[in-house]
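Lab manual, section 2.4: Encoding a predicted structure.

Procedure: take the sequence of the chain (427 residues), apply the prediction step described in section 2.3, and record the output as structure tokens. A sample record is shown.
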Amino acid sequence: MPMPKFKSQSDSRAVPSSWSILLSVFCREALRALWRYKLRSSLTTLGITIGIAAVVLVIAIGKAGAERTEVELAKLGDNLVWIEAGSRNVAGTRTGSHGTNTLTLADAEAIAREVPLISRVSPQVDGTVQVQFGNRNWSTRFRGVSPDYLAIRRWDVASGVTFSHEDLVQSSAKVLLGETVRARLFGAADPVGQIVRIKGQLFLVNGVLAAKGQSTDGRDQDDWIVLPYTSAQKRLISRSITWLDDIFCSAVSPQAVDRAIAQVVALLRQRHQIRDGEEGDFNIRRPDEILKAQVESAKTLSIFLVSVASIALLVGGIGIMNVMLASVLQQTREIGLRMAIGASPVAVRVQFLGEAAALSLIGGVLGMGTSVVSSYGFARLLGWPIDIPASAFVLAIGSSVAVGLFFGLYPAWRASRLEPIEALRYE
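Recorded output:
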């Protein structure tokens, strides 16, 4: 009876496959070939480096720009519907705010009552005033609004409290200061509870608004004071003034904004007895549409820049193909010798594909490093935080390797088609 055979411990160890050995050998040979012609390899990787760096930077800057636009959209307000007094075009001239007195408190109340897609409404009157505290004074804009205005515009109170509906009814002499006004009048001191003089009247500082910074068009969004609209009408403008400059509304959802605007327009045209085809005495402002148009423009520009960067990658790939063809010519006798002693055409193709992939991969890594360093410079220049997403690095590596393999395919195929005898005779 034959004895069973047992595998020794050494037999049970995994033996590297012939393919893994082949790949390691030819990858090592590819790196040696690149090192042998260092200057040529460096110039070849330059195109890949520039292309990859450009692609990564465009993606990073585009992402940062989109995030900044989202922040600006959030600053505009909570599903904002902004009704402004005055037609956009009356007899060839835009009247704008303060150009008409047909927008009234009754209109605001009707919108709140009859448009279910509107969740909040705030009347507004505004103008320019001089604010004084002690021996300091500052010229700024005022906004007379209702307590709902801060919720509509997503504006927080940094210190103190806002005014109430009771203050609205009583036309209380209370005011909220924007951060710029606070800094100009009080410096580092706390203004809450202090008394300021506005147009010869005394107002109690009820609170300070949270800073919003500059808008996309460069205007200071903190250079304002806010007070009840009844107080603004009676104390700062004129007791006989009853009309409004604007009505700020908040739709129930972002998706409801367009439908809410259509309902508001229909209601106001009916209330103001404006016939079909006639120009209205009010208009709806859509600052969000301006920002969205900027986003679309930025997307178009990003596509264009990515196309330019792709041309750089294409040039780099053509450079790789030219270098690999030159490498095939220089190594013709070596290729013939290897094939003569048993190297297969597949092995030769793997060698030259490995060399092309290594060239492009080095260019990709250098391109990623260049993009990281450049992103800090662009962040300082634009004033935006620019974070390169991980997906951009994955795209960079994948693109560089794909370019190397694609443009290295023809030289590798040409090398594998050499006849050993003819190759050995090559001078």
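Check your result against the sample. Residues 216 and 290 are 10 Å apart (CA to CA).
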